[in-house]
Design brief:
Layout: H1 9-12, E1 13-24, E2 27-30, E3 34-35, E4 39-51, E5 56-64, E6 73-79, E7 83-84, E8 93-98, E9 111-119, E10 123-134
Antiparallel strand pairs: 1-10, 2-9, 3-9, 4-8, 4-10, 5-6, 5-7, 5-9
Length: about 150
């Protein structure tokens, strides 16, 4: 085991952005474009609750050349296997990991976002993007974080 065990997990894992928990109809929800270089590692957590019988949920990471989404495109191999009610995926989670060097840095891609698509029928879902190992101080959570109890 390594590292300081007295440091709370909430200081190691920062919430960068969130797709709020809700019952989403068919459509796509996205986070803001986030600078990949701010953290050494990123983790996107997708969580579904009760899914309608024909519901599907897809999630993927996209990349862009700036915070406005210039040149947006998918990041290779950064999509989950589709979650379906038929596949008994109610109340399940999926995780997508990302390192900044997995972006198309040769073509100046610097930002990423999480995209979650609900199709066919409604599904309860939420998604969170976490950053770990901040490269800059001070570290901050998304403004939606209301309280941290240590």
């Amino acid at each position: 085991m390594s590292g300081n065990l007295n440091i709370p997990a909430s200081t190691k894992f920062r919430i960068q952005d969130v797709i709020d928990p809700d019952a989403y109809a068919a459509g796509t929800e996205v986070t803001d474009w986030l600078p990949a270089a701010d953290y050494a590692n990123h983790m996107s957590l997708i969580s579904v609750g009760t899914m309608a019988a024909t519901s599907t949920v897809d999630a993927k990471l996209e990349q862009a050349q700036d915070a406005a989404g210039l040149g947006a495109k998918d990041i290779a191999n950064k999509a989950i296997t589709q979650l379906t009610a038929a596949g008994a995926d109610d109340d399940k989670q999926a995780i997508i990991n990302l390192r900044p060097d997995e972006l198309d840095t040769i073509n100046d891609f610097t930002h990423f976002r999480l995209s979650v698509t609900t199709a066919v029928a409604a599904s309860d879902s939420a998604a969170y993007v976490f950053g770990t190992d901040a490269r800059y101080e001070p570290e901050t959570d998304a403004t939606s974080v209301d309280e941290i109890v240590s």
